[in-house]
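::Amino acid chain::
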Amino acid sequence: MKNPIQNINKNFESRIRLGIMSILMVNEHVDFNYLKTVLDITDGNLASHIKALEKEGYIDVYKQFIGKKPNTVYTASKAGKKAFTQHLDALEKLLKSNNT
């Protein structure tokens, strides 16, 4: 039997990154404040995890102004959706393999 955890994506091991991607998978786009509120984390903590996901190409970042106020919006990229789906599939297979 091959290694059951080999397809689990290390980029999603953090509960914060897992939360960010989960939110982005079910929403077309969300802004920074929404993520911060839902995940109940600090600006700096969220920013560092977003930067890591952006570096991997898993999320797209759009900066805009609403009136005079800056607003940053995030979406899951095509690569991010694929990677996250593969990660979830790997977790599901792992759970099923240990359920026998």
